[in-house]
Amino acid sequence: MKIKYGIIGLPNIGKSTLFNLITKSNVKNENYPFCTINANYKNISIQDRKIKKIIKKKTYIKITYPYVKFVDIAGLIKGANKGLGLGNKFLKNIQHTNILIHVVRLFINHSITHVYNSIEPIRDIKIITTELKLNDLNYLKKIKKKKIYDDKKIDKLIFYLKNNKFYELKKNQFSFPEKKNLLILKPQVFLLNINLNKKTYYHQIEKIKKIYNNIIVINMEHKNISNILYINTIIKKIINLSFKILKIKTFYTIENKKITGFILKKHDNILKAAQKVHTDFCDNFIKAEVINYSIFIKYNSWKTAKKKGHIKYRGKKYIVKDGDIIKFNLKKKLHKI
Question: How many Å apart are CA 63 and CA 21, to the nearest integer?
Fold first, then answer.
């Protein structure tokens, strides 16, 4: 599973600044709407705490952390679903993401213009979510015209959307391949971008928390932007919360003093893990030797852990656990990890 984070929100709220901080990039972030026109993409490796615990007692010549991709998407405005502000292009960028980082402006800075000339975070959130919903309505209507699926079922999805019944829409048993393209169903993490003292925004933050879940409060003032520890804290909060929402787990391979981390969905089995390591591993899988990192770090030696009986043989149906270290036994030697 490749996780793509889409950074969304109104223009001039700090999206590109956030993208630069997280990815150590230098994309343009000027003080005018639609400074970003084309989406910016960047992979970042996750400084996985489990890997850090594994390598603490032993030297590895090569360490490869799991990675995710961040996408800096240009600011959306009211009417984006009709193409305003190049909205159709920007909405299409969102379609290819797994989770949305919705940046919301609470900070007060008269030198940075607000596209609607006032700081009203709940209004701003509603503008973005409404545009996602209207885009989805247009999309479903186009699907309906193609006559591929039962009209009654499409009409039911349209009814849910129009009436903001997003939970019912998500849980609806009727599924079709294009359902993954519905933007409103993508999970969102809300990043409330403040400045000054957090207490200044206490009541606004509490008001937002009553309506929306998955809130992270950040402060991208210059003193914080230059603080590496603060930036790493933001990244850690985003990754931890998003992994929890997406039900993501990590597993590892260790061979010839090389340790590599991979990402899987919660219910993925060991064949999915094999495929992540190498495309041929799945077809040539016999069995796998598995130990969880929490046990492995006590010995920090595959040989010792095996001698103590902590290495277990697992078959094709085994559901990988978060933190598993896996050695694959294959029909033939195909690829060095």
Answer: 23
The model carries a pTM of 0.86
Q: Structure tokens of 241?
A: 């919360």
* pLDDT by residue, tens only, the chain of 337 residues: 689 999 999 988 888 889 988 988 887 555 444 444 567 889 999 888 999 888 887 788 899 999 999 998 876 666 655 555 444 566 778 888 999 999 999 988 888 888 888 889 999 999 999 989 998 998 999 889 988 888 888 999 999 999 999 888 888 877 777 788 899 999 999 999 998 777 888 999 999 999 999 999 998 876 777 788 888 899 999 999 999 999 999 999 998 889 999 999 999 999 999 999 988 888 889 999 999 999 999 988 889 999 999 999 999 999 999 999 999 988 865 554 4
Structure tokens that stand for 161 in this block = 């959307």
Three-state SS for the chain is: CCCEEEEECCCCCCHHHHHHHHHCCCCCCCCCCCCCCCCEEEEEECCCHHHHHHHCCCCCCEEECCEEEEEECCCCCCCHHHCHHHHHHHHHHHHCCCEEEEEEECCCCCCCCCCCCCCCHHHHHHHHHHHHHHHHHHHHHHHHHHCCCCHHHHHHHHHHHHCCCHHHHHHCCCCCHHHHHCHHHCCEEEEEEECCCHHHHHHHHHHHHHHCCCEEEEECCHHHHCCHHHHHHHHHHHHHHHHHHHCEEEEEEEECCEEEEEEEECCCEHHHHHHHHCCCCCCCEEEEEEEEHHHHHHHCCHHHHHHCCCCEEECCCCECCCCEEEEEEECCCCCCC
The strand order across the sheet containing 40-45 reads: 40-45, 67-72, 4-8, 99-105, 188-194, 215-219
CB 285 within 8 A of CB 296: no
C-alpha 25/C-alpha 31 separation (Å) is: 18
